[in-house]
Write a structure and sequence with these properties.
Length: 634
Amino acid sequence: MRFNTQLCALVLFTGLANTIFAQTISFTPENPQPGDSVTFSYDAKGGKLEGEEISAVVYHFDGTSIKASDMGLNFQGSLHTGKFISASEDKVIFMKLRGSHPEIVETNNDKGVAVLMYKEDGKTPVSGAWGEYTKGVSWYDSFTVGLEPERKLGIRALEKELTLYPENSLTYLPMLATLTGPTKKEKLLGWYEEFVSKVENTENPIEKELVAAMEVSVSLKDKSRTQSLKAKISKDFPNGDYVLEQLVEELGDISDLDKLEATVQNIEENFTQNKSYSIYESFISQILVYYYTIHNQFDKAVERINALDNPIEKSHLLNEFAWGLSGEGFEKEAKELPLALDLSKESLSLLEKKENHSEKWKAEDHSVLDWEEKIKLDYSYCADTYALLLYKNGQADSALHYQAQSLKIQTEEKEYYERYAVYMEAVKGPEETMTYLEELIQKGTASRKMKKQYKRLAQGEGSTEFLAEMADMEKKAAEEVMAELKELEIHEEAPSFKLTNIDGIEVSLESLKGKVVVLDFWATWCGPCIVSFPGMDKARKKFLEREDVIFLFINTREKDGEEKDNVITFLEKEGYTFEVLIDDKDEMYEAYELEGIPTKVVIDKEGTMRFKKVGYYGDDDKMIEELSLMIEMA
């Protein structure tokens, strides 16, 4: 199966709340009440979106859902203006300003362009305003509004929310505990203890209360309380949302198909009346289709897909099915090629039919523009799969056509360009392919595979002039990356640590003096962490012969108190052999002041922290190059 220029600042003062905007942006009124009409102006001059065709999406956070709508903009020169009406239930409103490409988004340094809703006094945010703001800047919903999660902003906002409105603990305290993890802050510990104790002493607590108390206990690494609360939830609410969530999470770890089908049958017989069931329905089908493909039970996979009503979800699953049959690249042969071609073609046909773009199928948190962009992106994925299958079926010319269609939409995936170059070589020959590859190499966007393909073609054609130029460009590119890294370089004493690995052997930073230490902070539930591992493992293996370099993978922020078991299960399933240390109390996470995971930290031979970089952006080549340079600079 396949994760600037300042416009406005939502500043967290020690007072109640204030919204401060830079000169380039303004809202009127500054402190609107729910139901108010709000006017907006933005001057793009000198900013990230200068010269772009700007569009705006408004996201209404009301405490239970997110509703999105496109906002029309008027503009004169660089000045853009618009108007929206807040709903009576709104707590906070986020805006996403973007350019001609969905990736060009003004994020306000990840603080977001946001307006809190206020009470009639115009000074006090309404109940839930700071809590919902946290969802937009620090929680999963941050991706919806075009932001990267920023933990500290959310912690401060939630402290304000719960100071103003302690009655909102049931909704927001588990979120705060997740963001803080184990903490020594007395005020927070008092809040957590009071809340969990109150739930434990309630005669007949509702499921939501028990789950909230359990989530707080998980975040605080209180294993005894966690297990006790889990047992009570399962006993008192055997068909509740929590048990359903646990069953769904287990699906991905079940390799026995009979057991998987039995678990799905249990879910569908006992949980379909749950309000949260619809959240998981598509995922359940995706898991089944994935394992049906592995076990060559193609009829069952087709039957499962055909049972879906939503044509966009159906297209997605058809593509996943076809991609699994394709070999997922050039190295492996395709299985059931005629079937795979039919599935892939149908996935495209569903997206091409305008009636399937109906808002009937649109999620509330997508505006119409969001929805059309999603469908376009889905089309890109499906076209890429179809092109690969056509190529393997001996239809390179058609493969080239569909890959070109995919690249008109998806401009970030280097693998798509790699496949396009292979199809081009088959259809148009070496000379035109070399010209194409030269352009990508000169732009600095060619992958290692594309450079290798160019070298092979150049040597075969006896055209080696560009190879010398290419070597100079690679040297210059490395120097530019080095200069960028120097800007990121820090010189801080690395916090000491003593942790045990999965074999129970203690490893300390002190014992590693004389070595360059690369730390990769991760968790088994962290999607970007897991996706980055193939590249990280390549980086680790690149330095295996260097006795003065060591890679340590720090497992942290695990959620259920079973850190070691989770890690062992994961490593055995995925086949990784790198050394993992268990940060079971999240002490290293706090000591290194991490904003999120994955985070890479490079420590020099004297124990000085030289680099700290958060996130993974999908480019293994770039990550390996950057890490290699960081190690050489340390």
